[in-house]
Each structure stands twice: as C-alpha cells, then as structure tokens.
C-alpha cells in the first residue's frame, strides 16, 4: 500500500464528514525533519530535544542547541514545531552530567527526571530556554514541558522562559513574535488539576507512552507486561475521553503524541473521543491518514459512549468490527 500512501501525501487528513485532523510527526534530530516533506505532515507535534543530549559525548552548549533549533525551524518553514524541553534523568541518564545526586534511583521512570530535574538544575533549563527563544526570533515558538504533575511546575517553567525572553529582549536581541506554551499530560495526577491549569495553556499534549505505564503501574519497557494491558482498554479510553472533554470545553487544543496515535485502530478511537491532533512516528502517517480519510467521525463519536460502557478487557474487537462494517 506504499504507493497508495504516497499518493495521499498532499491530500488533507480529513474525515469523510469533513473533520480536519492535524496530523504531525514526532522528531528529535535534524535529519528527522526530512520526514515532513516525505509524509506531507502538518508539522512536528513533538520535538524531543533530549535526543541531541543523548547522542552527544559532552553537554551541548547553548550555541549547539541554538543551531539545531534554528535548522529545525528552517526545515519546517511555516509548519509549526512543538519543542519539548529535555526529558533526561532517570533511565535517560547522561554520563557527562554530574550524577552524584541522581545515582542509583530504584525507580528511574518515577525518578528525578524531565521537568523535575529541569526546575532544580535550572541552569540547564535557562540555557535551553535562551537557545530556543533566540533560535525562534521573529517567529512563533511553541514549547511544552515533560512530566508535569502539578500546575505549579508548569507555572515555574513558564516563568523561567518569560524571564529569559525579557532578558534577551532587554539586551536588544530578537525574540519570538509569540511564545505558545503547553504541557504534556503523561502523569495521571495532572488530570486532577486540569481545571486549574487549562486556562493557562495554549495546548495540551497527551503522552500515552508514559501515561499508560503510570495509569496501569506497568513498566513500559518490561516485555512481560507488553501484552497485558491494551491501549484500547476501557480504563485508558475513559481517562482520555474525560481529559479531552475538559480540554475542549476550555477551548484548549488537545492532541496525543504517544505511540498509540500511530496505530490506525487506536488513532480511530482517539478521534472518536474528540482528539483533534495526532503526532506520530513518520512511518505511520500514511496508514493513519488512510484511516482518517475513510472515517465518519460523527458516526463513531455517537457510538463511543456505548463502547465505553462495555465491561471488557479490551474494546479492540468491538472497535475493529465497527471499523470493518463502516468501511474504515
Ligand atoms: C510519552 O510519554 O507518551 C511521550 C510522547 O514521551 P516519551 O515517549 O518521549 O516519554
Ligand atoms: Mg513521556
């Protein structure tokens, strides 16, 4: 079906009933940006900035970070790029970072990582903020923060960025026309504070990789658990449905940037729940776009409450049967 997917490159990711879904790619390195033109995606919904740190033998200094971000923005042209601040620490430990105080965590996935490390080691985050802000001078910068568990973490991260913006501006250098801030939702606790954080967000991005591992208390890297819980289980879909409804009511665009969105049946379920943006691995753009273009979103949304009330371990068979009988 390769040729069929290639032929859809320039067609919009729009459902049969006219709902436009934003279909974006996940990226992390300069070379990943070629995927935008190859796939015809709408932009980069998740740029994992820690990749540059992970492939470097030494801590990337500001100039190197800034060069990467500028190249990424140039490659994207007028398509949006959402940069996620570094998600390092825990299992993505950096050998060149002084690790005295982060050594030997018993549960690195639940450890001192991402925004937790970023706010405490704020020199690292200030450098990154400055690199991003200067790289995006004269354009819109979109930033999001990983592993936010409570609204105050988001507030502190935004304040750090705003202080850098002011500093750069006061020193007569160019700053972005606008900075759009958002957060990942991948720690379940944040869902309990959504009403407090939504008014401050320009967008919300659900990271289903970590979210499902935390929701089910099941290590995402443990092969013994890989088959045990399904992304199409009622628990996950109900959770995502509730978050999506709240975000939509607050007029905050909500997307999914975990691997779940790259599988056509899962992506179909997400659209059924009201998700309007998927950021996925580039190879999945073709199959997911084909699914979107054959879907009647309104018909599916009408059925979702019924599916979600079924006390099954997984709704995969039911959703798959619906897809088959509806030409998806
Ligand atoms: C996620 O957790 O779903 C996610 C997109 O981030 P990462 O896979 O980089 O942890
Ligand atoms: Mg994550």
Characterization of the model:
Helix 5 crosses helix 6, helix 6 packs across helix 7 and helix 11 (264-272) crosses helix 13 (297-308). Strands 1-2-3-4-5-6-7-8 form an 8-stranded parallel beta barrel. It has 14 helices and 8 strands. The model has no long low-confidence stretch (mean pLDDT 95). Helix 8 links the parallel strand 5 and strand 6. It starts with a helix and ends with a helix. It is α/β, with parallel strands linked by helices and 328 residues long. It is globular and about 60 Å long. Bound molecules: phosphoenolpyruvate and magnesium ion. Belongs to the PEP-utilizing enzyme family.
What's a concise summary of this model?
The protein is α/β, with parallel strands linked by helices.
Key features?
single chain, about 325 residues, alpha/beta, 8-stranded parallel β-barrel, 14 helices, binds phosphoenolpyruvate, binds magnesium ion
The rounded Rg comes to 20 Å
Which H/E pattern describes the elements?
HEHEHHEHHEHEHEHHEHEHHH
Bound molecules: phosphoenolpyruvate, magnesium ion
Which strand order do you get reading across the main beta sheet? 1-2-3-4-5-6-7-8
Q: What structural class results from the helix and strand content?
A: alpha/beta
Number of strands: 8
Subcellular location: Cytoplasm
Organism: Rhizorhabdus dicambivorans
Family: Belongs to the PEP-utilizing enzyme family.
Protein name: phosphoenolpyruvate--protein phosphotransferase
């Amino acid at each position: 079906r390769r040729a069929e997917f290639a032929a859809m490159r320039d067609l919009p990711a729009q459902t049969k009933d006219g709902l436009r879904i934003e279909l974006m790619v996940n990226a992390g390195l300069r070379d990943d940006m070629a995927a935008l033109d190859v796939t015809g995606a709408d932009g980069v919904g998740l740029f994992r900035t820690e990749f540059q740190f992970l492939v470097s033998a030494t801590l990337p200094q500001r100039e190197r970070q800034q060069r990467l971000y500028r190249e990424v923005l140039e490659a994207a042209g007028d398509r949006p790029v959402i940069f996620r601040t570094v998600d390092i620490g825990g299992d993505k430990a950096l050998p060149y970072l002084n690790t005295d105080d982060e050594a030997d965590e018993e549960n690195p996935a639940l450890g001192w990582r991402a925004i937790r490390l970023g706010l405490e080691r704020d020199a690292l985050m200030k450098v990154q903020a400055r690199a991003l802000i200067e790289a995006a001078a004269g354009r819109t910068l979109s930033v999001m923060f990983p592993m936010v568990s409570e609204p105050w973490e988001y507030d502190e991260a935004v304040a750090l960025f705003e202080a850098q913006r002011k500093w750069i501006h006061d020193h007569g250098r160019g700053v972005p026309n606008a900075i759009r801030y958002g957060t990942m939702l991948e720690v379940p606790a944040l869902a309990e504070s959504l009403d407090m954080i939504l008014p401050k967000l320009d967008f919300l991005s659900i990271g289903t990789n970590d979210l499902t591992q935390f929701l089910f208390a099941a290590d995402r890297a443990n092969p013994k658990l890989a088959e045990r819980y399904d992304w199409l289980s009622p628990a996950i879909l109900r959770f995502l449905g509730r978050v999506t409804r709240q975000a939509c009511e607050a007029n905050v665009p909500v997307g999914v940037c975990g691997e779940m969105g790259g599988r056509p049946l899962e992506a179909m379920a997400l659209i059924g729940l009201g998700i309007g943006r998927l950021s996925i691995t580039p190879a999945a753009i073709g199959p997911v776009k084909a699914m979107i273009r054959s879907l009647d979103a309104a018909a599916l949304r009408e059925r979702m409450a019924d599916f979600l009330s079924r006390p099954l371990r997984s709704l995969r068979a039911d959703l798959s049967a619906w897809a088959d009988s509806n030409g998806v």
